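From the pipeline queue, job 12 of 40. The input is one protein chain; the requested action is below.

Action: predict structure.
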Amino acid sequence: MTSATRAVAALSALAALLLATGCTAAPGSTAPTSSPRSTPNEQVGGDGTDDSDDLEGAILDDGRMFAVVTWGSSSCVPAVEEVAAEGQKVRVTLMDAATDQVCTADFAPRASIGALPEGVDPTQDVTLEVAYGDISDDVDLDGDAANSGAPGSSTEYLPSAGWVDDGLLVLLTWGSSGCPPIVESVEGSGDAGTATFATDDDRMCTMDMAPRATLLSFDDEAVSDDAFTLTLVGGGLDGTVTVRG
C-alpha cells in the first residue's frame, strides 16, 4: 500500500456502456486479466482535485508479482509491456489495449499484473517507477517479511491479496484469462471480510492458466488493514487469504 491516502467518493456512470469486445487472451496465454472494482468510484482527493493520474500498487503472489492500479475503461486494462530492475527500483511500462478494441465508456480502477524481476527483495520496500502514456509516477510498496516467494521462482497458483488504498485491495487468482471472477457481493468489518463470487457461469472460457486481478472495495472506516483476513466464497475460489500491504 502506498503512503498516499485519499478520500474516494462513489461514481455515477459517466455514460451508457458501449458494446465491448471480449478482453480475453488466446488459449495458452499467460496474459493477466483484471476485473473492475466492485463499486467503481471517482478518484477525487480530499482537497477536491482530480487524482486520476496517481497510481497505486501492491506486491502479490508471496513476493513474485506486483499490481499497478490505473484509472480508465474497465474493459480495456493496460498491459505490463516492460519491466526492469536496478536494486529495489523497478521500471514498469504500461501499454493500452489495441487501438481497434472497443472499450466501455466507464471510468474505473483497473489492476495490471506483472512479475517482479529476479534480484528484487520483496521483504524490503520496493519502488515501482511507472510510465503509462503521458503519466509517470513512483509507486512505493511496503516490503513484508512474510513474502517468502523469490521473484523468478515458480508460482504455487494460490490466491493472494494486497491493499492498494484505503479500503481497496487487489485479489490475485489463477485460472482462465477469458473467465475472470465475477463479484456478487463484498462485506467486511474490523479485520475480516468476505467476497462472494458467481458460481453458475455460462461463459466460454479459454483453456489457459493466467493471473487474474480483481479489485474489491470496502468501507475504509469499517475495516482495518492490519492482519485483515479475506474469505472467498463461490466461483471455485473458496478459501481464505491474508491481505498484505
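Job complete. Residues 1-30, 38-49 have pLDDT under 50 and may be disordered.
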